[in-house]
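Project outcomes to date are best conveyed with an example. Our students and postdoctoral researchers have been running inverse folding experiments weekly, and each run begins with a structure described purely in tokens. The record below, which covers 328 residues, was selected by the lab manager from last quarter's runs and is presented without edits.
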């Protein structure tokens, strides 16, 4: 879908059949959402640019992520998209910046684009130039990324309270506790994966914003340069915050796995105690169960109580020893 956005005006959806002979000056933002080959060819003809393919936008080299060609800036970053099922995935987004227009190329419905569209469509909105539209859109993307990071931080705080909660008397049953630990590990995995995706996006923004700042410093207005510097600082602070969250994910993961290992060790310790306690009585009982003709204890009047006492004592001594060693 090809949409022309003008300030304080309704977006104009354009098809190749009813396309204007030239791009209007007021359309500072041209949004290509999963464009057809005909729509891509139309913009290439009207704007005099070459649209990158999705494979080009997926490239991770810096030389492929941003470059200058014929006084036109080509940039791409990965952005986090939440699907209808709640799953988050990375999707590429391309930005082509000229003196007159900002052309965006995307393949998923991104919330930050909708937010910026709402801002630019307000009746009292100030008409931006192409660089101003880029700054406004990037600001919306940064705000959306910050919201996602805050959500990750909130989730990690909830997990931290669950993992490091104080013992409250009676412990839950092992089956229930194991189920809770699996839930915690899944939540940690999702939070860590989302944080990693957000970091990829932030690193991309952290490269293209300084690049735009340096490239447009000769013709951009001072307010735009100030806004770009502010964006650069915001992105740097978010990268630092994401690093903190990544460290917290690792801490909680190590703590959760440590608690699981402690519970497993407790189970093995119990099994060890039971097996050691049960071996001596079994040995004595098997010894008196042998079918020999002459066994002195068989003629004793107290032979049976003596055997029972010996079995009980052989089981009691290991229990006392383990208790003295502090195994339970």
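After processing, the design step wrote out the following sequence:
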């Amino acid at each position: 879908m090809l949409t022309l956005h003008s300030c304080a005006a309704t977006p104009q959806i354009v098809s190749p059949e009813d396309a204007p002979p030239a791009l209007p000056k007021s359309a500072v933002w041209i949004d290509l959402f999963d464009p057809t080959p005909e729509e891509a060819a139309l913009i290439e003809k009207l704007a005099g640019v070459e649209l990158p393919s999705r494979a080009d936008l997926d490239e991770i080299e810096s030389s492929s992520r941003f470059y200058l060609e014929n006084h036109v800036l080509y940039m791409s970053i990965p952005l986090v998209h939440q699907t209808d099922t709640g799953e988050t995935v990375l999707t590429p987004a391309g930005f082509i910046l000229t003196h007159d227009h900002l052309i965006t190329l995307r393949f998923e419905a991104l919330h930050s684009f909708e937010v910026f569209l709402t801002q630019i469509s307000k009746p009292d909105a100030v008409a931006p130039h192409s660089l101003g539209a880029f700054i406004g859109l990037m600001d919306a993307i940064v705000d959306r990324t910050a919201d996602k990071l805050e959500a990750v931080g909130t989730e990690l705080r909830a997990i931290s309270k669950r993992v490091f909660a104080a013992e409250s008397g009676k412990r839950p049953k092992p089956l229930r506790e194991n189920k809770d630990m699996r839930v915690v590990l899944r939540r940690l995995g999702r939070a860590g994966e989302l944080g990693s995706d957000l970091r990829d996006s932030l690193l991309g923004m952290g490269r293209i914003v300084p690049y735009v700042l340096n490239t447009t410093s000769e013709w951009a207005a001072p307010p735009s340069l100030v806004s770009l510097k502010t964006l650069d600082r915001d992105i740097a602070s978010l990268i630092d915050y994401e690093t903190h969250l990544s460290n917290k994910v690792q801490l909680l993961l190590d703590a959760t796995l440590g608690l699981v290992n402690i519970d497993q060790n407790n189970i093995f310790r119990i099994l060890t105690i039971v097996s050691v306690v049960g071996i001596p009585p079994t040995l004595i009982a098997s010894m008196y169960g042998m079918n020999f003709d002459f066994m002195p204890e068989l003629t004793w009047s107290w032979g049976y109580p003596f055997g029972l006492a010996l079995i009980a004592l052989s089981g009691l001594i290991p229990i006392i020893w383990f208790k003295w060693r502090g195994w339970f």
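The chain is about 60% helix and 15% strand. The chain has a mean pLDDT of 82. The training component of this project remains on track.
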